[in-house]
Design brief:
Blueprint lengths: L4 H10 L1 H10 L12 H11 L4 H12 L9 H5 L3 H6 L4 H16 L12 H8 L7 H10 L12 H10 L8 H8 L6 H13 L9
Helix pairs in contact: 1-2, 2-12, 3-7, 8-9, 10-12
Length: 210
């Protein structure tokens, strides 16, 4: 597990409100998932959209079982029929998302083999060109797949709710206000957001969806 002590020290020093949240939550335990390929991770993101975890996991296992070794690749997805994907539980819309992802990766429009060398904004711009991958999904990929340290998902309802509660705001902040409040957290915004999400676990509130 990565060491986030420097990030925590910075955040506690520059933001007294967040310092209180950090003290309440405890040690930072961000988990970055490095299993499988980047393509697999994005496939999982598409399958899991708007589904409960259990239902999505069942569908994902059926989808991956269609491919050799249980590993979907762009070429393998393109060679799989709509009927097979539908039988595994994917909706027509998600099939179209998966095919768009596959075609863009295969054509090099989304160079997944080069993501480590891309900066955050450039990578997000590439990811959101894929049907079914919005800004929030792209930011989650950066945070929890690539381990990027300075991502601020301003559209996330959980972050908005946590900021409203921690900073004692009358209304849930807008994405623009989230960016303004979170500007001071750079370059450790990912850690700040993890603490805000966890603060909701200590009380009421829900994490946001795409």
């Amino acid at each position: 597990m990565a060491n986030y002590s420097a990030s925590v020290r910075h955040l506690k020093r520059i933001d007294p409100v967040l310092a209180g949240v950090i003290e309440s939550v405890g040690p930072c335990r961000i988990r970055v998932s490095s299993d499988g390929t980047h393509f697999q991770a994005l496939t999982r993101s598409i399958v899991f959209q708007q589904l409960s975890g259990k239902a999505a996991a069942t569908i994902l296992s059926r989808v991956t079982a269609l491919f050799p070794g249980g590993v979907p690749t762009p070429d393998a997805v393109q060679a799989t029929s709509d009927e097979q994907l539908r039988a595994a539980g994917l909706s027509r819309q998600k099939i179209s998302y998966l095919r768009d992802l596959s075609s863009k990766v295969a054509a090099g429009a989304l160079p997944l083999d080069a993501v480590e060398a891309m900066d955050d904004d450039d990578l997000i711009d590439h990811l959101v060109q894929v049907k079914g991958i919005g800004r929030w999904t792209a930011q989650m990929f950066l945070m929890f797949r690539l381990g990027r340290r300075n991502v601020l998902p301003e559209l996330d309802l959980g972050i908005q709710n946590a900021i409203r509660r921690a900073y004692r705001m009358r209304k849930r902040p807008t994405p623009k206000q989230v960016k303004r409040i979170g500007a001071k957290w750079a370059p450790h915004s990912t850690v700040a957001c993890w603490y805000l999400w966890r603060s909701l676990d200590n009380g009421d509130g829900q994490l946001g969806d795409d």
